[in-house]
């Protein structure tokens, strides 16, 4: 399980966006107009064009030739309610957001991390998951009872990631509150390396998204245990072009109904091993 594709450098993202123009989707929509269709246009045409990712467990992936994962399960709920057909392209991440901003797709039905930069060009549905940074530690670690106990500890995190920024901000907060701060932040190229070092005691904790660390604890409960949040809540949502408010409202109404009847939380527990029942109804 990974959530690293949101954390490429801006230069790398620009290169990927350019390369995405050459990508051929695995199914359907093809190139359309310069603007994503609004809800009235979608109802008029009878078709909504969306893009999902090809290999991003557990959100979206292809299994036995069919789309699977959490987002695809939610998309099936929308299909059941929508008064129009939903045509889906399954493509690499690099082509999804550029496809939405250029109007090739009406919506990105994928795990888009919401941030201020993306709000400049995209509008977001009601959140579908939370991506807040937490720390994980060894099960027999007794010296860390709360997040404040990370003072003086060695903590691992992925190099260049949003989680690194969260950890650095938390370190600053520890110092501002009168603590010594984190003794050493160890940056890793991949999380398997970080977890291995944690397991053998080279670090005291590792910071990653709640989805990832919860999955690690569920997989190896005899080795690891979950700590506390070290960042403010961060949310994941589906995205459309900025200004497409009616479409956001409609899709959000379906997602919120799935929250109200518990279906979304059941799917979260199935795919993530945790549910996020304190999410806001809308992205601010």
From TrEMBL:
Keyword field contains Signal: yes
PANTHER family, per the entry: AMINO-ACID-BINDING PROTEIN YXEM-RELATED, MEMBRANE-BOUND LYTIC MUREIN TRANSGLYCOSYLASE F
Matches recorded under InterPro entries: Solute-binding_3/MltF_N
Domain of life: Bacteria
The name this protein goes by in its record: Transporter substrate-binding domain-containing protein
Keyword Signal set for record: yes
Keywords for the protein's UniProt record, in alphabetical order: Signal
Signal sequence annotation: 1-36
Matching Pfam families: SBP_bac_3
Protein source organism: Jiella endophytica
Residue intervals of the Solute-binding protein family 3/N-terminal domain: 47-275
